[in-house]
Amino acid sequence: MSTVQGRLRIAVQKSGRLAERSLDLVRDAGLRVVKGNNDLLYKVENYPIDLLRVRDDDIPTFVADGVCDLGIVGENVLEEGKNANPSQEGANASVVMPLGFGKCTLKLACPPTLDYAGPGSLEGARIATSYPKILRRYLEERGVSADIVVMRGAVEVAPRLKLAAAICDLVSTGATLEANGLVAQETVFESQAVLIRSPAAPEPGLQHLLDSIIERMAGVVSSQG
Ligand code: ATP
Ligand code: ZN
């Protein structure tokens, strides 16, 4: 990748649940996005701005490190990734504003056969999740100690396979839980897409553009609210 000088960078999810709405927001804010000569970088033709298209999990780190000035990511990913890189401690990306899309809830769910009467019912149990940090904190705050098993995907099949007694997974409609015979019990974390900004200053001369992009995005979001 060639180093781009004198441009702002916005990190967006390349493909997935946030990809389209993220691009829509950028376009609605008046940025004319054109495909670059590679998949990773899209260019904005009417401003010195590039879109870096990456996996959502990488977005908080890129923005925290100043590789990108802005990013669009789910709060769940941001929260789980906080201080993920020990050398960067204290330099997290900060939330500029919630964006009103990508809404979902991290829920604790279990099969109806588990006699659930509150988080305490999970004491000593095995719980599968892709969000071990958020779940651990939730359980600790409630004095519950459980065995957290990290799964990157297909968390909802864990109880059926006897890999775990319960799961903690993202839910939007609840259809996936239902299809897997699971009952939602607790809300662990409410999430939506957020605009995040870097603790690092943009390249020289670009602060004004950065501020105006944020302002326009805020205008788009509030007009949709
Ligand atoms: P990537 O390839 O970028 O790593 P991914 O598979 O991790 O993609 P997606 O499934 O595209 O991620 O979800 C991206 C984000 O969309 C989630 O982190 C979450 O903030 C949001 N989201 C909204 N609804 C849901 C849902 N029902 N299940 C999972 N994520 C959801
Ligand atoms: Zn991801």
Automatic annotation (TrEMBL):
Activity regulation description: Feedback inhibited by histidine.
EC class: transferase
Named cofactor requirement(s): Mg(2+)
Keyword NADP: no
Keywords, in A-Z order: Amino-acid biosynthesis, ATP-binding, Cytoplasm, Glycosyltransferase, Histidine biosynthesis, Magnesium, Metal-binding, Nucleotide-binding, Transferase
Domain ATP phosphoribosyltransferase catalytic intervals: 55-218
Domain of life, source organism: Bacteria
Recorded GO MF terms: ATP phosphoribosyltransferase activity
Residues of the full protein shown: 1 to 225 of 298
Known function: Catalyzes the condensation of ATP and 5-phosphoribose 1-diphosphate to form N'-(5'-phosphoribosyl)-ATP (PR-ATP). Has a crucial role in the pathway because the rate of histidine biosynthesis seems to be controlled primarily by regulation of HisG enzymatic activity.
Family as reported in the entry's similarity comment: Belongs to the ATP phosphoribosyltransferase family. Long subfamily.
Organism of provenance: Brevundimonas staleyi
Pathway: Amino-acid biosynthesis; L-histidine biosynthesis; L-histidine from 5-phospho-alpha-D-ribose 1-diphosphate: step 1/9
Principal location: cytoplasm
Protein name (database record): ATP phosphoribosyltransferase
Reactions this protein catalyses: 1-(5-phospho-beta-D-ribosyl)-ATP + diphosphate = 5-phospho-alpha-D-ribose 1-diphosphate + ATP
